[in-house]
Amino acid sequence: MRERLSVLNAAAALVTVLVVVLADGVSRSAPVDPRPAGSVTFNGPVHTAAYWGDTIYVGGDFTTATWGGHNVARLHTAAVNARTGALLPWSPQVDATVRTIDADSDGVYLAGNFHLVNGAGRDNLAKVDHAGVLQPTLKHRIDGHPDSMSVGGGRLYLGGSITAVDGQARTGVAAFDLVTGELDPQWHPYLNDVVNVVRYTAGRVYLGGRFDSVDGARGTKKIAALDPVTGAVDPGFWSHVSAMVNDIAIVDGSIYVGIDGGGGRVSSMDLTGQVRWTVATDGAVQAVTVLDGVLYLGGHFDNVCGSANTGHLGVCLDGATRRVKLAAVDPGSGALLGWIADGNGSVGVRALRSSKELGQLVAAGAYTAVNGSPQRRFALFNLVSPTASDITW
User: What domains are defined for the chain?
Assistant: First the structure.
């Protein structure tokens, strides 16, 4: 353990710079610049974010966005120009919390604890177009609260504490046809507890959360892989996780999982669920994403532990390196990198999203500063056009 600690501390002392030359000829570094660019900020927690091209859609508990010294009303949703950090005109009126967002060429999908969108009834799930106009599909009665969604393969997959949709029993998850908006009658796996994250990939839908099994199958505790068409458990994936899963990222044949319990964990797995490595933190890892060969972690931790050996309440027993709410590790080995973008607060970072095309990272959450500089609840790392001055709302 001491040997591993020395290796991790040596890695932490280095600032790893990997030059990435994109198709547009622009060179960027990985990890991203730890200094957030000038961008929109918010007066309440940001729970979720999704890229669609050069636009970042966000949702949360906020009612005001601040950009260029102006406070502008934004009721639980907003859109940000990823190239400039500017607030965009897109502004659906949502009456309560938006917990999860996804987008495709047809529009933007919202889910959470709301009941009205643009003055029309929508029970926790809605679709709006890229102009902010509410669409007629996805009008359902949802019992329970959605926390995560993933769009792909012609369906919208929804996860949370869901118990029924339009009076039809559902336990934690549901799927909807993207064309008609109708509930998929075939896709109804049984889970015995909450789903925190849903991730669609071609051939599999991954679920993570607090559940102990899916359809009573062995090897489905806290994380499972399902058939995206039938909802059947994929027996080719076997869980080795015992604590609640908060987030999942799948990149190049590897699965990265943000975990609660004993402080927190991030684990790398192969596509069968076999764990390759685990890094411990002293608080939950709530968000993970991979960009340009770097795995970023977000959560409410204050330290990355020197080993996976932790004590009561996640205390690092073999030493620790300070990383507050954000950290970066090598996805191949789990070695801590020298990237420091310390946040603050208790809850910290709730969501991380990245754009390979823009070479950019977004961190959303409940913090109010990064590296001691004011940055309320939304941070853009690696702004594409840092000299842009247009202000729109």
Answer: 2-381 (2.130.10.10)
